[in-house]
């Protein structure tokens, strides 16, 4: 995938600038990576001796396997974003390179978090006797080699997608944690949820900066994200939909709840939160959630 470029103007709107000023992006990223450093944890911080595998239900085991596959796909996610926002190439305009370079700083910190998630979940499976290391590595490789891409033209759409995805993941970990009895898994899920909340906060601030700048003109692109949203691996993992629905039902989780976060963000950052385009986005989200 090439670097995102502004697509054709949406009917009734002007072509939107692709990038925020580098200095503004720097401030957003700096805040996010500082928080990541301050709130970092390691696998050694987990009390592995507290593991009680006998308390795990079949749903618990299924959900852990599922989220391990999703979290372990970090090489695919990172490869996509590094391709979409390249930081190598003398042909890059200085403004584009500056923006991408700042985003790279966040991506490195984010990837470190996600790799830690994958490593912790993989170790949990092995420690709990859910899989052997050899079998787990083979299972992860089967899904991990598949490409991850996003279809959006404007950068803010990629950011809005990731905002929703991070919020949805946070919500799932919180709901899943409420249903499990194993103290180690409860601790791990709490840590994962807090990390995802930090990631969401960065993307909320980033998308908010675009909305503050572009106002109502940003809304059509955000509606497109909601209309086409799929959770990661939904179109590549065999049996994804049946598996995800089974896990979601058992944990009372609905990923479309995360759409509301985008509506609240637009209301908070738009200059005129009562304007028709903002209300239209809220109505659109309710309509989309109604058919899920």
CATH architecture: Orthogonal Bundle
Q: Ends: how far apart?
A: 29 Å
**Shape assignment:** globular
The fraction of residues assigned to DSSP E strands is under 5%
The chain-level structural class is: mainly alpha
Oligomer: single chain
Domains counted in the coordinates: how many?
A: 1
Q: Tell me about the biggest sheet?
A: none
CATH class category: Mainly Alpha
Number of helices: 11
Q: What name does the CATH topology carry?
A: Ribonucleotide Reductase, subunit A
Mean residue pLDDT: 87
- Uncertain parts: 1-14
List the secondary-structure elements in sequence, H or E.
Answer: HHHHHHHHHHH
Overall description:
This protein is mainly alpha-helical and 292 residues long. It has a single domain, classed as Ribonucleotide Reductase, subunit A, CATH 1.10.620.20. 66% of the residues lie in helices and 0% in strands. The chain is built from 11 helices and no strands. Helix 1 runs parallel beside helix 4. The radius of gyration is 20 Å and the shape is globular. The N terminus is likely disordered.
């Amino acid at each position: 995938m090439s670097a995102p470029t502004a697509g054709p103007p949406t009917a009734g709107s002007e072509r939107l600038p692709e990038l925020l000023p580098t200095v503004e992006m720097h401030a957003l990223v700096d805040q996010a990576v500082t928080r990541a450093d301050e709130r970092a944890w390691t696998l050694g911080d987990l009390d592995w001796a507290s593991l009680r595998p006998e308390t795990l239900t079949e749903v618990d085991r299924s959900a852990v396997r599922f989220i391990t596959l999703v979290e372990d796909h970090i090489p695919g996610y990172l490869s996509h974003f590094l391709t979409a926002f390249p930081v190598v190439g003398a042909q890059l305009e200085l403004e584009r390179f500056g923006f991408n370079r700042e985003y790279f700083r966040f991506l490195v910190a984010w990837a470190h978090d996600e790799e830690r998630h994958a490593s912790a979940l993989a170790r949990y499976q092995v420690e709990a006797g859910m899989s052997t290391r050899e079998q787990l590595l083979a299972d992860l490789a089967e899904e991990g080699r598949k490409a991850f891409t996003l279809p959006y033209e404007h950068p803010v759409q990629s950011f809005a997608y990731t905002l929703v995805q991070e919020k949805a993941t946070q919500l799932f970990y919180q709901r899943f944690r409420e249903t499990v009895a194993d103290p180690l898994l409860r601790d791990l899920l709490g840590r994962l949820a807090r990390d995802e909340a930090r990631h969401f906060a960065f993307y909320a601030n980033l998308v908010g900066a675009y909305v503050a700048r572009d106002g109502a003109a940003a809304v059509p692109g955000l509606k497109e994200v909601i209309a086409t949203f799929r959770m990661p691996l939904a179109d590549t993992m065999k049996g994804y939909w049946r598996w995800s629905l089974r896990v979601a039902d058992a944990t009372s989780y609905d990923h479309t709840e995360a759409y509301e976060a985008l509506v609240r963000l637009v209301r908070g950052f738009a200059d005129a939160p009562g304007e028709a385009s903002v209300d239209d986005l809220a109505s659109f989200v309710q309509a989309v959630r109604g058919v899920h």
